[in-house]
Amino acid sequence: MRHILLLIFIGCSFTLKADHITGGEMYYTLRSSSGGMNTYHVTLKQFRSCFTPNRNFYNPIYIGIFNRVTGERIRDEQVPLSREEEQSGTSDDPCITRPPLICFYVGYWEFDVTLPVSADGYLLTSQVTNRVDGITNLDPGYGRIGATYTAEIPGSRPLTAAPANSSARFTGSDLITICAENSFNYSFAAEDADGDELRYFFSEAYQTVGYSGGGPGGPGGGGGGQQSQPVVEPPYYPLPYGSGFSGSSPLGNQVTINPATGMVSGIAPGVGIYVVTVCVQEIRNGVAIATQRKDLQLSITGCTIAAASLLPEYMLCGNTQRLTVTNQSNSPLIASWSWEFSNSAGNVVYRTSGQTADYTFPAPGTYDVKLVTNRGMQCPDSTVSKALVYPGFDPRFSSAGACISKPVLFRDETTTAFGTVNFWDWDFGDGGTQTDFSQLQHPTYAYPSTGPKSVRLITHNSVGCKDTLVQTVTILDKPPILLAFRDTLICPPDPLQLRANGLGTFTWSPAVNMTGANTATPNVNVTTDTKYYVDLDYDGCLNRDSVTIRAVDQVTLGLPADTVICLGDAISLRPASDGLLYSWTPAASLNNASVKNPLATPTGNTRYVVTASISNCTATDDINVNTVPYPQANAGPDTVICFETFATLHATTDGSSYTWSPLQPQTLTPTVHPEATTQYIFTATDTRGCPKPVRDTVLVTVLPKVQASAGRDTAVVLGQPLQLNASGGLQYTWSPAGGLSNPFIANPLITFSSPTRAIRYRVLVQDEAGCMDSAFINVKVYNTLPQVFVPTAFTPNGDGTNDLLRPIGAGIQEIRYFSVYNRWGQLVFTSSKNGLGWDGRINGAPQTNGVYVWQVMAVDYLGQDFFLTGTATLIR
């Protein structure tokens, strides 16, 4: 690929509302070392957007110095702003569409600090109150979130010479653009003056909890450049990432970082602002001595790049040999595609010129996937990727041990059908440290805290397959013991089996009258009340619980008095008993015949018998449940009535009393006059023993008032077909019916053969219930050719007569425009509606007497154009 990608980490095509700090980092250089004291030159670097006015960097800013292990505050430094630089520009690459403007400021704070050599080392911290708004890869429910930037000075505990250290320093360019859903490469490479080995990884960005900021001049305010406040001591907490994102995957699962080079590459996510933190770990003589962090908000814009863009490799290492691949760039400048798949011998096995390549490889192996775009055209490009076709790669691992502060053994169980498994990168998910990783095949790790740990394994094989597996391991302070019961009864001399469940070795005590004391399920035979203890040992984690057994010589059992319920209702049977097992009869009407409190739904008068038992001790009792039918209640059928009419309801019941709601007085056949659709509730009760009322509902639907319409009055010429148009109902009857094509439809046709000043038609409209209304239309018939009549004068005085200058069409199908002009040729009115006219006003102001010119353009009923012009006099 020949196009240079520009990564914008300061948003410029987004509206950043109130805050503007978009990233930061801190690094240092060892100036001198003498007498157990080291002097470091420290640089804090922060970025802010050009597009948030009235915002400044803190001046001065607080930088806190803490013990790296204990978090104890050593001291605070107030550091003035050393300098500020502006960087801006727009890509001029013709193959990038919609390139955004890049603009940001970089602030530098520099100072020297002298510190005694410490076993634990030091943590340098700077904080701001708020990041930019609207960060895409964070949980939106958290609102604005602060930022914490750190640097680590190592102590002598991991390595005696470690404090004599200059930190790793990121060297990658900050002027770069990422186009959404396009491939990109961005180097987070760092250099280390001490020659330490560097290891790169994504990490959680830190938020700021409890930091008050610096008032209106700080990142939380605007203007003035006032000082910040002392920073909050560690520990620092990760940001709340949103769905699909995490600290180790801040740009989604298609973007990775090379742990050896710091190169971030892949396919960018959609348009938005993304917080990304890259850590570089300094490793000296195999010991990790310090970790430096760079925290940025990357703005990914909607630009596109006319490029041949593929993933670095396509791994068919699962259970398929089929590859379907498209160009990652969706630039509109791309007009042609040419694909070639070649095997390891260089022979082409597949070609296509479509936008998508779809091929099933015939045999395992490593293949080249080549894409050429815009061959012989503007913005040509090409790229080659690898297809690793080695199905049968299955990453797996297991763990043994789950006790806090004791080693947990992780065992890689990855299998592969091709090559050998040769790479392991473990992250043990311990958020309290940056040393929870290993590249051993079967590592161990001792967790200092309890809870669920998200363990990640990245594994490779020798033919290039890679995969990532994440599993949760729960670390315990003591292993859980699940007991089947903690307190139970027994009727001697019956035996009893104790039951426990858990991981580890069980030991029960006292072992008196017990067999299997070293199992999870021992058997006991007691004659007196006894308490047994169970101990569980799981890889050195210990826990204890107990079971109490009470010995009895009889079962207590008592049922309440006989009862009456409504037929069809359910009743809970509740005996007073200390029994452990229960058996009810008859079982047919019970939901469960073997529980203490079954739910009974008898179909008639029923006698229920229960037997309660404790081992061989039993007791029996019974209860009669009598049933009484509900009264019948029928509110009658639903009905439909016309607007403002009456309805009579018809209810029936065998109950002793009844009521209507909302109605008075109470009768089985009330007459109602609802204004709108209404539900009437009929309630019946009786005195036969079922105390519950029965309700039924009748719906009276009130149809809306029929709004009959016959259309607007009109005028036609002889021989012109006129179609009447009525509305408002389902049935129509026109009168007079003479000459109508069908007087019983909404839109009959009529053609007049003789002129008349006016004929009045009446239409009777009915709805689905037979409710009626009527309307009228007046029709004038002229013995002329199609014509538009416009008065020669009008008097807009508001008396209702001749107030408008308007066109009246006869034989006219459509008026395209009717326009009125004053004597200076100014357009004062225009309309395309027949009958709509000018009221003699311009912008609400009455016009003086005078002559006005009008023009009308229309189409007659035969489809011919009609144009007419004339004058009219305005008279007041």
TrEMBL record:
> Gene3D superfamilies from the xrefs?
Immunoglobulins (2.60.40.10)
SMART domains, A to Z:
PKD
**Any idea where the PKD domain is?**
327-374, 424-475
**Could you tell me the superkingdom of the organism this chain comes from?**
Bacteria
* InterPro entries noted in UniProt: Ig-like_fold (IPR013783), PKD/Chitinase_dom (IPR022409), PKD_dom (IPR000601), PKD_dom_sf (IPR035986), T9SS_type_B (IPR026341)
Which Pfam families does this one have?
Answer: CHU_C, PKD_4
Report the protein name in the record.
Gliding motility-associated C-terminal domain-containing protein
